[in-house]
Design goal:
With about 1700 residues, this protein is an alpha/beta fold. Among the domains are: about 180-345, Rossmann fold (3-Layer(aba) Sandwich); about 605-730, 2-Layer Sandwich (GMP Synthetase, Chain A, domain 3); about 740-825, ANL, C-terminal domain (GMP Synthetase, Chain A, domain 3); about 835-910, Non-ribosomal Peptide Synthetase Peptidyl Carrier Protein, Chain A (Orthogonal Bundle); about 935-965 and about 985-1160, no CATH class; about 1560-1680, UDP N-Acetylglucosamine Acyltransferase, domain 1. The strands form 19 sheets. Strands 65, 67, 68, 72, 73, 75, 77 and 78 form an eight-stranded mixed β-sheet that branches. The protein has a seven-stranded mixed β-sheet with strand order 2-1-13-12-14-15-16, sandwiched between helices. The chain is globular and about 135 Å long.
C-alpha cells in the first residue's frame, strides 16, 4: 500500500441543499422501474469542485500540509477534549502519528488540539491524509463529504490496504486477554484462510455470534473476502434459518462453545454450510474456524474438504486441510494451512442487512465495500476520531450503526474500540473507570439507563476509587431522537462533554451530526450533513427552501445502491435523479442544520398539523415522576389523530396522571401538542436494536377512537410491555386502569395524620368528592399532597372538602343529603356578568349537567381543541369579539378568560373601521309574495302549459309530416303487408321524425329570441325583488331557454356564438369553449378575443335575501378559465389571466399562472370535411343501428297500416290525419306502440353499449399515453368516441344497472379500462372516453360529478387510483395523477398533473392548482391496511345483517320503474289519439272545421292526461320518501350494517320519474312546497334553486332552512360517504342566509342567521358559519364582502 506524507486531518463539511426543480416534475410519482441513484460529475445537479486536492487518490504523491479557514460559522473546529485519558503513542512501528526524528509524540494536555500534530513533519502518513477543501464543501454546488471521500479513494484495492499498521490497540475486550493491535489485525485480515469450499467474493456467509471482540474481528475479516450477513444472536433457530434462506447465504459462522444444536440440524437440512468459531484464549478477537457436518449418529465431525458441495463462482484454491485455522501465523497455537482467496474490491457487495421492518415489511440492503469505507470515514472525520480515541461499544454489531460507527470508523481512523458482551449499565461505569474510553455511541434508552445507574453508583461510592470518573470527550446518540432534556443531563453528568445527536439509517450511514463545537444551542437538531447530500422535498420531489417542512431526501455516498430484488421498493424510494427517500420528515434551517420531526410513519397528524413525537417526549421526560416515555398517534373522531403517550413511571405505585402531564407541558408545548391519552407500561416497546416502536402502537393496543367528549378518567390505560424485538403485528394486551376503590381510598385518608374521619361521595357522574374531617389547620392541599405520594393521580378526587365534622343523620350515620348541600354551597360563588356567561357557555358546550366553578379548568372538565373552538364561536356570537381558540388554552378557566375577554372588548371598541362591510340583513322584507296570483300563475306556466303544448305541437307536426310523406313518397296501396312496404313505412316514420326534429331545431331558437326580447328586452344590472315583475319575467325566459335552447345554433361553436350574440351578448368570434358552457343574462356578458373557457360556471345572476341581483361579467382578451371554475357576478377577469382548474374569479389575482394554459383542452375537432365525409355518417349509422329494437316493434306495427286504402269506406270521408288517428287507436296498435317505447328504453341501451364496445375494439382501438398527436385520424378517433360516450350514461345502461355495481365495471373493462373488484361507481356517471388510460384498484369508492382528464395540450397520461382509495365528489383528476392505496381525495379536490398522492393521505379542495393536504397519513401503514369497504362486504361478500339486493334484482326494479315511467308518459299521447279517434268515428268529415275539432280533441286529451301524469309523478317520490327511506335520523348507515343505502337507491330511482318536473318549479313557491312534503323544514319566503340544483337536496328531512334564505345552484347534501362508510347528519341553515352557485354545505355543517357562502365555497362537516360571516374558498375561509 502506498502511503502519503500528510497526517490525518479530521474534517467535516456540510453539503448545501441545491434545488433540483428543473429535474423533478411536479409531484413526480415513484418511477415505474427501479432507478439506481448515480452521482456523476457530469450531472448538472452535482457541480465539480475545482480544488486539485479533491481529485487525489491514495496513490497521490506527497503533499505539503495545507490548512484552510472555514468559511461558515457551523464548520467544525478540531479541538477536542482528551482529559486525563491521554497516553503516549508507541514510537515503535509505523503509526500515522509516529515521528522518526523525535521518537514519537506524546499528547498530555487535556486541551490538546489536533492542530498541534501538524507541527510535526516527516511522520508516517495515513491513507486518509489528503486534506479536504472545506471552502469547496460549503460552497454552493459543492460535492458532499461522502462524494469527496469516495473520489479521493476511488482506487483503493482492498479493505486491508486501508487499515493502519501500528501497535495501537484496535480491538479491546473487557476480559483479561491481550488487546489486538492494528498491525496484528491488518495481518490477520490480509493472511486469513476461510474453510469454505468454492468460496468467492460473492459468497454469502452469515455470522451468528454473541457480542464480543471475536464477532467484530470476524466481520472485518469476512468483509475482506466475501459477503457477510450479520445475524441477531437472539433470534430463534427457525428465524435464523428463514433469514439465511431469504438472503441466500452459503454458510454461517456459529460459536463453537455455545451454539444451538437445533439450528445446526435445520441448516444442514437446508444445505447451508456451518462453520464453528473457536476463540483464542490469549488474544481478544483472534479465533479459529472449522467446518462441521452431522454424522448419522448426530455427532458433529470436523471433516476434510476437497471440493465444494455447491456451485459457486470462483475461488483461488480449494481447501485441502482437515482442520483449517483462521489465525495469524505468528500467533497461532496450531499449524495453519493457508489457502489464498480473492479479496473483495471496492465495488463488490460485502455486506447484507435487513431493514428493521418497523413498518411491517423488511427489505434487503446490500452494501459495497466502498459504501462502508466512505461511511466509516465520514463518521471518523465528522467526529474528529483519531488514534487517541477509544470507543466504548455496547451497541449490537448486527446493525449498520454499530458496524460503521463503532467498529469500522475507529479501526479506519487508527483508534480503539472496546467490544463488550452487550449493554450493561452497571458494567458501563466500571469500564468507564478502568478502560478510559473517550467516546461512546448509544440509543436514548441506553443513555437513560446509564444515567439512572450512575445515580445509584454515585450514591454507593465506586468500588475502584473514592470518586466516579465521568470525564469523556464525546457522547453520540443513535437510534432515535435525542430529547433536549436528556442531552442536558448527559452533559451535566459527564462534566461538559460534547453531546452530539446523529442521524443515519440502514440505507445510509451516516447522514448528519452537529459540529464538534456544538453546545446544544439548537434543541432537536440532528446536525449538518456529514456524508450525502441532504434535501428537503415536498410530495412533488421538489426541493424546499430553508425552514420548509417536508420529506428528508439524501443522495450520494454513503447512500446504498438500492434494495435487493425489490424493484417496487426501489421505484418508491428513489427519485429519477438519485435522491433516496429516508421516510423521515423534517426541515433544514438557515444554517443547514437538519431537524427531524419524526418518521413519516411515526409523526402524529392532528387535524392536518404534523407533530413530532420526539418533541412531545422531550417535554414529558422533564417531569420528575416520568422515567421513560414514547409518544404515538391515537385515532380521533374528528382530528383523525391526537397525541398519546406511553409512560414508564419512576414509582409504579404513584403514576402521574394526564392532567398533571398537561399542566407540566403547558409551558413547553403548544396546546395542540399536549398529550390526550396515557398508557402505562413497565417499559416502552422496542425492537431488537432498542429503537422505540411507535408505529401502529394504537392499533396494537386496540385503542378505540377518541373524541373531545371522552371523559378524562377514560383516557388512562395500562398494558404489558412486549419483549424486545416483538414484531409490530403482535397485539399488546391493554386495559383501562383499575377503577378507584372508594372504600380503600376513604380508609387511606383516615390514616392521614390530623384526620379524624373521611368519606368519598359521587355527586356528579364520573366525579369524586372527598369529605375529610380533621384538626384545625388541615387544608385540601395537605390532603392532596398526602394522596399524591400514595395513589395514582387519576385516583385523587376532583373535589376535596375539609370540614370540622362530617354531617350525620340523627341515627349517627353520615348524611348524603347534608354533604351534598355543603358541596353545592361550596360551588356557589359570586360571578360577574361576563363570568356567568362564560361558565354557562362551558356547561353548554361540554354538555355538563351543572354550572362549573369559575375557577374550574376547561380542559379538566373535558374540553379539548374542538370544543374550545366552539366556545370562541359562541363568544363571537354573544359578545361580537373574535378570540382565537388558542386563547382558551392560555386562560383555561372562566375567571381568567373573562379578564382576557374584557380586554379584547375594549381593544375592539378602539379599532378603526375596515374597508369591507359585514354581511347582515337589515330586517326589511324585500321580496314580494311568492304565492300571489301573479307569481303562482307565472311559475306554473312552464310545467302546465309550455311543456305540454310543446309536446302537442311536436306530435301534431309529426303526424302531418307523416301524412304528407305517405301521399308523396314510396307508397303503393296494393303492396300492403309485404316486407318492402313495411320497410318503406319504417323509413317514412324515420324521415318524418327527422324532419319534425329539424323543424323544432329551427323554431326553438326563434322562440327563445322572441321570449327574451319581448319579455325582457335587455338585461340590466341591478337588484330586483324576488317574485316581482322583473324576477318573474327573468324566470320565464330562463325556463323557455331551458326547454327550447339554441336548436340549430347549437350545432357548432361558431353558431352558438352567433346565437349568444343574437341574444345580446358581446362575445368575440374567436372565443373557444366546450359543449358544457352555459351562458345566460346575455347582455351582461362580455368576452374579448382569444379567450378560452372550459366547463365553467359563468352567470351574471345571483341573489341576496329577498333580491335577485344581476351584475356584469367581463372576460378580457387572452384569458383562460379552466375546467370547473366559477366566475362570480360582477367579476372582471383581467387580460392574460389563466385560472387553474377548480378555481374561482376570487382567485384570479393569486392563482393565475401561465402553466395552466396546457389544461385548456377544447379541441381541436377534426376538419369539417373529415366530419362530413366520415364523422357524421358514422354517428348516423351508429344511431340508426341503435334503433333496431324500436324498428322491430314498428315493423310489427306497420303490418296494420296507418292509413286507409281507396277500398276503405273511411278513406273517402277522413283526412290523412283522421285516418292516422282512427287506425292508431286500435288497442293492438296501442300495445305495440308501448312495446316499441319499452324496447327503445330497455333493450336499445344495451345494444348501444354492445355496439360501442365493438366500435371501440374494432374501429377506434386503444388510447395510449404519450405525446399529444393531432393528425386528422387521431382527432377523428377522439371525436367519434367522445360523441358516442356523450355524458357517460352509456345510453341509459348506467342507471338500469343501478349506477354503483359490478355491471358498470364489466362494461368499462370491455371498453379497455383496468378495473379492480368491488368498485363503487358514482351516482352521476363520470364523463370520460379514454378507457384504456384509467387504472382502478380494488374497493375504490367514487363520488359524483368528478372529472378525469387524460390529455392536455402537450401529452396524454394514464391515471391510476390504487386499491382502497376514495375520490369524492366534484374532483378533477389531471393527466398522470396517481392516487395511492387507501388515500382519500376529498370533495372538490384538484389532482395535479403527474401528481402522486401517497397511500393513506387525505386531500381536499384546491389552492394554487393542487389539492390541499389535509392529513399526511402513514404511507407504510396504509400499504398494509386492508381495502375492503362496507359496500364490498355487503354487496359482493354478502356479509351484512340484512338481505342484500343482487345485481339482478337491482336491474329488475330499475327496469320496472323505467317501464312504469315509459307507460305513464305514453298515456297522454295514447289518450289524445283515442279521444281524437272517437271524434273522427262520429264526424267522418274532411272539412277544416272537423280537422280543427280533431286537433282540439287531441290537445284536450293530451292535457287532461298530462296533468294526471304530473300529479302521479310528483306524488311517487313523496310516497317513496315516506315508505321506502322513511323518516331519517342522524347516524351511521354503513352498507354492511344497515339496509338504508339500498333503500335509498330505490328511492332515488323513484325520484327520477319527476326530475324534469321539479326542475320546472325551481325558484318558485311550489318547489318549496314539494320539499316540505318531502320532510324539509323551510321557513317563509325561501327561494330554492332558481337556476337549478346540483343536485337538489337528497335528504330533505334532515335539512332545516330559516326564513328569507336564498339558495342558488348549491349543494345541500346531508349524507357523507367516506371510503364506503355512510353516515347521515343534520344540516341547519338559518334565516337570511345566502348560498350562491357552486357552494357546498357538507353533512353536519351549520349556517347561522345572516351568513353567506360565495361562489365555489365548501363548508366542512361539523363547521359552523357564524352570523354575519361571509365565506369563500374550497375549503371555506373568511371573505370580506364589499
Amino acid at each position: 500500500m502506498e502511503k502519503m506524507d500528510e497526517p490525518v486531518l479530521p474534517s467535516v463539511a456540510t453539503s448545501p441543499v441545491q434545488p433540483y426543480s428543473e429535474h423533478i416534475q411536479t409531484k413526480q410519482k415513484p418511477p415505474l422501474s427501479p432507478t439506481k441513484p448515480s452521482i456523476s460529475k457530469s450531472s448538472p445537479n452535482f457541480l465539480v469542485s475545482h480544488n486539485p486536492m479533491d481529485r487525489l487518490s491514495d496513490t497521490s504523491p506527497s503533499l505539503k500540509p495545507v490548512l484552510r479557514r472555514n468559511s461558515r460559522p457551523d464548520s467544525f473546529n478540531f479541538n477536542y477534549r482528551v482529559g486525563d485519558n491521554s497516553k503516549p503513542i508507541a514510537s515503535t512501528g509505523s503509526s500515522p502519528y509516529s515521528d522518526s526524528e523525535h521518537g514519537g509524540l506524546s499528547v498530555k494536555s487535556s486541551e490538546a488540539s489536533i492542530s498541534t500534530l501538524l507541527q510535526h513533519t516527516n511522520r508516517t502518513p495515513s491513507p486518509f491524509s489528503p486534506i479536504l477543501n472545506r471552502e469547496s464543501l460549503v460552497a454552493v454546488g459543492s460535492p458532499s463529504l461522502g462524494a469527496t471521500i469516495s473520489n479521493r479513494f476511488s482506487r483503493f484495492e482492498t479493505l486491508a490496504s486501508l487499515m493502519y499498521d501500528t501497535e495501537v490497540s484496535a480491538v479491546r475486550s473487557t476480559d483479561t486477554r491481550t488487546p489486538l493491535t492494528h498491525r496484528r489485525l491488518k495481518s490477520f485480515v490480509h493472511d486469513c484462510s476461510i474453510p469454505l469450499p468454492g468460496l468467492s467474493r460473492s459468497s454469502r456467509v452469515g455470522v451468528l455470534l454473541p457480542e464480543g471482540p471475536e464477532l467484530a474481528v470476524c466481520l472485518v475479516a469476512l468483509l475482506s473476502h466475501c459477503c457477510v450477513v450479520p445475524m441477531n444472536s437472539h433470534l430463534t433457530a427457525r428465524e435464523v434459518a428463514a433469514e439465511l434462506a431469504q438472503l441466500r447465504a452459503d454458510a454461517v459462522v456459529l460459536n463453537a462453545v455455545d451454539h444451538n444444536e437445533e439450528l445446526v440440524r435445520i441448516l444442514s437440512a437446508t444445505g447451508v454450510t456451518t462453520m464453528f468459531l473457536f476463540p483464542d484464549t490469549l488474544h481478544c478477537g483472534l479465533f479459529t474456524l472449522s467446518l462441521s457436518s452431522i454424522s448419522e449418529g448426530g455427532v458433529y465431525d470436523l471433516i476434510s474438504i476437497t471440493s465444494g458441495t455447491r456451485n459457486r463462482s470462483t475461488a483461488s484454491k480449494k481447501r485441502q486441510s482437515s482442520l483449517i485455522s483462521f489465525m495469524m501465523g505468528d500467533t497461532a497455537s496450531t499449524t495453519t494451512t493457508h489457502s489464498t482467496h480473492e479479496y473483495t474490491d471496492p465495488e463488490d457487495t460485502v455486506m447484507i442487512l435487513r431493514t428493521s421492518g418497523t413498518s411491517g415489511s423488511k427489505k434487503t440492503v446490500p452494501y459495497t465495500l466502498r459504501t462502508l469505507v466512505v461511511g466509516a470515514k465520514c463518521v471518523a472525520e465528522s467526529w474528529g476520531l483519531s488514534p487517541h480515541d477509544v470507543n466504548l461499544n455496547m451497541m449490537p454489531l448486527y446493525h449498520v450503526g454499530g458496524i460503521v460507527r463503532n467498529l469500522l470508523a475507529p479501526i479506519l481512523s487508527g483508534g480503539t474500540v472496546i467490544i463488550t458482551p452487550g449493554f450493561d449499565a452497571v458494567a458501563f461505569w466500571e469500564i468507564l473507570q478502568n478502560h478510559s474510553p473517550t467516546w461512546y455511541y448509544a440509543v436514548p434508552t441506553m443513555h437513560m439507563a446509564i444515567l439512572e445507574e450512575g445515580v445509584e453508583v454515585m450514591k454507593k461510592g465506586h468500588k475502584l476509587g473514592d470518586g466516579l470518573r465521568t470525564s469523556i470527550r464525546m457522547i453520540a446518540n443513535a437510534g432515535g431522537g435525542l430529547p433536549h432534556s436528556l442531552a442536558l443531563q448527559l452533559r451535566t453528568v459527564f462534566q461538559g462533554s460534547t453531546v452530539l445527536p446523529s442521524y443515519g439509517m440502514t440505507e445510509c450511514m451516516p447522514i448528519a451530526t452537529p459540529p464538534l463545537h456544538y453546545n446544544l444551542e439548537k434543541p432537536g437538531t440532528s446536525g449538518v450533513s456529514v456524508g450525502p447530500e441532504i434535501a428537503i422535498m415536498d410530495t412533488n420531489n421538489v426541493a424546499l427552501s430553508a425552514g420548509s417542512f417536508g420529506r428528508i431526501m439524501v443522495r450520494g455516498k454513503p447512500v446504498f445502491g438500492g434494495y435487493e430484488n425489490d424493484d417496487d421498493a426501489n421505484a418508491r424510494a428513489f427519485t429519477p435523479d438519485g435522491f433516496f427517500d429516508t421516510g423521515d420528515m423534517g426541515y433544514l434551517d438557515e444554517d443547514g442544520y437538519l431537524f427531524i420531526t419524526g418518521r413519516s410513519k411515526e409523526v402524529i397528524n392532528r387535524g392536518g398539523e404534523i407533530i413530532s413525537p420526539v418533541e412531545i417526549e422531550d417535554a414529558v421526560l422533564s417531569h420528575p415522576r416520568v422515567m421513560n416515555v414514547i409518544a404515538f398517534s391515537v385515532p380521533h373522531s374528528v382530528l383523525q389523530e391526537t397525541v398519546g403517550i406511553v409512560i414508564v413511571a419512576r414509582d409504579a405505585s404513584s403514576r402521574v396522571g394526564l392532567l398533571e402531564i398537561q399542566r407540566h407541558v403547558s409551558s413547553i408545548l403548544h396546546p395542540t401538542k399536549w398529550p390526550q391519552f396515557i398508557v402505562y407500561m413497565s417499559e416502552v416497546p422496542k425492537n431488537q436494536t432498542n429503537k422505540p416502536l411507535r408505529i401502529k402502537l394504537a392499533e396494537r393496543l386496540a385503542l378505540e377512537e377518541q373524541s373531545d367528549s371522552t371523559p378524562i378518567n377514560q383516557r388512562h390505560m395500562e398494558a404489558e410491555c412486549p419483549p424486545k424485538g416483538t414484531p409490530i403485528s403482535v397485539k399488546i394486551k391493554c386495559q383501562p386502569v383499575s377503577s378507584v376503590n372508594v372504600e380503600k381510598l376513604g380508609k387511606m385518608l383516615c390514616l392521614m395524620p390530623s384526620t379524624r374521619e373521611a368519606r368519598i361521595f359521587s355527586f356528579q357522574t364520573g366525579e369524586m368528592t372527598a369529605f375529610v374531617a380533621g384538626k384545625h389547620g388541615l387544608s385540601k392541599e395537605d390532603v392532596h399532597d398526602f394522596l399524591l405520594e400514595r395513589v395514582h393521580d387519576y385516583e385523587i378526587p376532583q373535589d376535596i372538602i375539609v370540614v370540622d365534622r362530617i354531617p350525620k343523620d340523627s341515627n349517627g350515620t353520615i348524611s348524603f343529603e347534608k354533604c351534598k348541600k355543603i358541596y353545592m354551597e361550596k360551588r356557589e360563588e359570586d360571578l360577574s356578568d361576563t363570568e356567568r356567561a362564560l361558565v354557562d357557555l362551558f356547561a353548554k358546550v361540554l354538555g355538563l349537567g351543572r354550572r362549573p366553578k369559575k375557577s374550574d379548568d376547561f380542559f379538566e372538565l373535558g374540553g379539548g381543541s374542538l370544543t374550545a373552538g366552539k366556545v370562541t364561536a359562541l363568544i363571537r356570537n354573544k359578545f361580537g369579539v373574535r378570540l382565537a381558540p388558542m386563547v382558551i388554552f392560555q386562560y383555561r378557566s372562566a375567571e381568567k378568560l373573562s379578564v382576557a375577554l374584557v380586554e379584547a372588548l375594549q381593544v375592539d371598541r378602539e379599532k378603526p373601521g375596515t374597508n369591507g362591510k359585514s354581511f347582515a340583513f337589515d330586517g326589511k322584507t324585500k321580496s314580494e309574495n311568492p304565492v300571489s296570483l301573479k307569481a303562482a300563475y307565472s311559475q306554473l306556466l312552464p310545467m302546465l302549459m309550455i311543456r305540454p303544448l310543446r309536446s302537442i305541437a311536436l306530435w301534431l307536426t309529426f303526424a302531418h309530416i307523416l301524412s304528407f310523406i305517405h301521399l308523396t313518397l314510396f307508397f303503393e296501396f296494393n303492396d300492403r303487408g309485404t316486407v318492402r312496404t313495411s320497410l318503406i313505412i319504417i323509413i317514412q316514420l324515420i324521415i318524418a321524425g327527422a324532419i319534425t326534429g329539424l323543424i323544432f331545431q329551427v323554431l326553438s331558437p326563434i322562440v327563445c329570441l322572441i321570449a327574451k326580447w319581448t319579455l325582457i328586452g335587455r338585461y340590466k344590472a341591478g337588484e330586483y325583488p324576488l317574485w316581482g315583475s322583473a324576477y318573474l319575467r327573468w324566470w320565464l325566459v330562463d325556463q323557455v331557454l331551458l326547454q327550447f335552447d339554441s336548436g340549430v345554433f347549437g350545432w357548432s361553436n361558431i353558431t352558438r356564438i352567433a346565437f349568444w350574440k343574437l341574444m345580446g351578448a358581446d362575445i368575440a368570434w374567436d372565443f373557444k369553449f366546450d359543449k358544457n358552457l352555459l351562458i345566460r343574462e346575455f347582455d351582461l356578458i362580455k368576452i374579448e378575443e382569444n379567450c378560452i373557457v372550459v366547463d365553467s360556471l359563468m352567470r351574471p345572476f345571483t341573489m341576496e335575501p329577498g333580491l335577485m341581483v344581476l351584475k356584469p361579467i367581463v372576460i378580457e382578451r387572452n384569458s383562460i378559465l379552466n375546467m370547473k371554475s366559477s366566475i362570480a357576478p360582477g367579476s372582471v377577469i383581467k387580460a392574460n389571466t389563466v385560472l387553474p382548474p377548480m378555481s374561482s374569479s376570487y382567485d384570479a389575482s393569486t392563482e393565475s399562472s401561465e402553466k395552466y394554459r396546457i389544461f385548456a383542452g377544447t379541441g381541436p375537432d377534426p376538419n369539417i370535411f373529415i366530419l362530413l365525409l366520415f364523422g357524421y355518417p358514422f354517428i348516423a349509422i351508429f344511431n340508426a343501428l341503435c334503433l333496431i329494437p324500436w324498428a322491430c316493434m314498428v315493423y310489427w306495427m306497420v303490418q296494420f297500416p296507418f292509413f286507409g286504402s281507396p277500398n276503405d269506406g273511411t278513406y273517402l270521408f277522413l283526412s290523412n290525419f283522421g285516418q292516422l288517428v282512427l287506425h292508431f287507436r286500435n288497442p293492438r296498435r296501442i300495445g305495440i306502440h308501448i312495446l316499441a317505447s319499452l324496447a327503445h328504453q330497455l333493450i336499445a341501451p344495451f345494444l348501444r353499449v354492445a355496439l360501442l364496445i365493438l366500435v371501440k375494439r374494432c374501429v377506434i382501438g386503444k388510447f395510449t399515453p404519450g405525446e399529444k398527436r393531432r393528425s386528422q385520424v387521431q382527432l377523428l378517433r377522439h371525436w367519434i368516441m367522445s360523441t358516442l360516450v356523450d355524458s357517460g350514461n352509456l345510453g341509459g345502461v348506467y342507471e338500469l344497472l343501478g349506477r354503483h355495481y359490478e355491471g358498470i365495471s364489466i362494461i368499462y373493462r370491455a371498453l379497455g379500462a383496468k378495473v379492480g373488484k368491488r368498485v363503487y361507481w358514482p351516482g352521476t356517471p363520470m364523463n370520460f372516453y379514454e378507457f384504456d388510460l384509467i387504472d382502478v384498484g380494488d374497493d375504490v369508492v367514487f363520488g359524483s360529478r368528478s372529472k378525469f382528464v387524460f390529455s392536455d395540450t402537450i401529452e396524454t397520461r394514464r391515471i391510476q387510483v390504487q386499491a382502497g382509495a376514495m375520490v369524492a365528489d366534484r374532483c378533477v383528476i389531471l393527466p398522470g395523477a396517481v392516487v395511492g392505496k387507501n388515500a382519500m381525495i376529498g370533495s372538490g379536490s384538484l389532482l395535479s398533473k403527474n401528481g402522486f398522492y401517497p397511500p393513506g393521505s387525505t386531500w381536499i379542495g384546491s389552492k394554487g392548482g393542487d389539492a390541499i393536504l389535509w392529513d399526511a397519513g402513514n404511507p407504510e401503514v396504509a400499504e398494509q391496511e386492508p381495502t375492503l369497504r362496507p359496500f364490498g362486504k355487503a354487496f359482493y361478500l354478502k356479509e351484512a345483517n340484512f338481505k342484500v339486493f343482487s345485481q339482478g334484482f337491482v336491474f329488475a326494479y330499475s327496469a320496472a320503474f323505467e317501464t312504469f315511467s315509459t307507460i305513464l308518459w305514453s298515456f297522454p299521447l295514447l289518450v289524445a289519439i283515442t279521444l281524437s279517434g272517437s271524434y273522427y268515428d262520429i264526424a267522418l268529415s274532411k272539412t277544416s272545421e272537423a280537422e280543427a275539432q280533431g286537433h282540439l280533441h287531441f290537445a284536450l286529451g293530451y292535457l287532461f292526461t298530462y296533468y294526471w301524469a304530473v300529479a302521479i309523478s310528483l306524488t311517487i317520490p313523496i310516497i317513496g320518501k315516506r315508505f321506502v327511506t322513511r323518516r331519517l335520523t342522524p347516524g351511521s348507515y354503513d352498507w354492511d350494517m344497515s339496509d338504508y343505502c339500498q333503500r335509498w337507491q330505490v328511492a332515488i330511482t323513484m325520484q327520477k320519474i319527476s326530475s324534469d318536473l321539479v326542475n320546472d318549479l325551481r325558484g318558485s313557491a311550489f318547489i318549496v312546497s314539494y320539499f316540505r312534503a318531502m320532510g324539509c323544514s323551510i321557513g317563509e319566503r325561501v327561494c330554492l334553486y332558481p337556476t337549478g340544483g346540483d343536485p337538489m337536496m337528497t335528504e330533505p328531512d334532515l335539512v332545516s332552512i330559516g326564513d328569507h334564505t336564498v339558495i342558488d345552484k348549491a349543494s345541500i347534501v346531508a349524507h357523507i360517504n367516506s371510503k364506503g362508510k355512510f353516515a347521515l347528519n343534520e344540516l341547519q341553515i338559518g334565516s337570511f342566509c345566502v348560498l350562491r352557485s357552486d357552494a357546498r354545505l357538507l353533512s353536519g355543517a351549520e349556517m347561522c342567521d345572516n351568513s353567506r357562502l360565495m361562489e365555489r365555497t365548501l363548508v366542512l362537516g361539523g363547521d359552523t358559519v357564524e352570523s354575519g360571516k361571509v365565506m369563500q374558498g374550497w375549503p371555506a375561509n373568511d371573505h370580506i364582502y364589499d
